[in-house]
Amino acid sequence: MTYSSRNHDALFMPMNFSNHFLMLQYRVQLVRCEPTSHFNVLGTYCTGNGILHDDSQRFHLDAWTDAEWNGFRNNFTSIITRYWDEKFELTPNRPWYPNPSPQPPSASAITCNLSLELVDSAAQAHHRYFIVKPQESNFRSFASSPNRLGMFTHRDLAYDWNTRRTQVGPADRRGRRKMHSVSFLQCTVLHEFGHTLGLDHVNGAGNDDWNYGVSLDQREDLMGMGDHLTGREAFPWKSQLRHHLIPEPADHKPHVPALKFTARVTAPQLITYWDNDWTPAPATP
């Protein structure tokens, strides 16, 4: 029923005979970074002189006011959980949950939940996020699940637009698609928390433009450049099941298919992109 690790905890419980819930639980420390702070987060560092260094650029840090910091902390948890909690359901391919005899097993679905708690010390935390206030707006925030670290800015709880050349529409006879300028709306902290959950970019690990998608359906994905969830983002919950369900022996009821779960998004979603090159179809005479 319960699972604990350095990366996260989990709780798996039946709600009734037809539904279970699987909750991933994360404890996060938010580290307030001032211009005078000394830190090094996976090579991005400050030595207390107000300059933040990454691989290619220097950024000038501003100080936090207490009101700004408290506002960031107060909004951080609710923004992430409101987006990620109860957004997926895992549906089995056959009955699997044993009911009291003489009732047959039920095909219990699994609701995917998320719990996020802010803690005050590194010893309590699964992950540590360093929060900075750069004057420049082009700092690239990041999160690494294996290292249990991340760095965000004071702007990252808000939604912002990114515009990219994107393949749209069906392919022609040569397999080519039209290229349009498309603007995508995304909240950085939601995308980066996807990395904390263990998700790569929609086209695999890496930070090249291609990794964030090529086609419209890839680009609009949360792990591309947009705000759209698919069953792919439920992978952290599907993967967690191996810690809670006992595998059946290979020779157990060979005529019964192996138990598998299919993820689907259960929450309504908005369209959060704009095709800048879209033109309406000609009116029919």
TrEMBL record:
Listed InterPro entries: MetalloPept_cat_dom_sf (IPR024079)
Superkingdom per UniProt: Bacteria
Protein name: Peptidase M10 metallopeptidase domain-containing protein
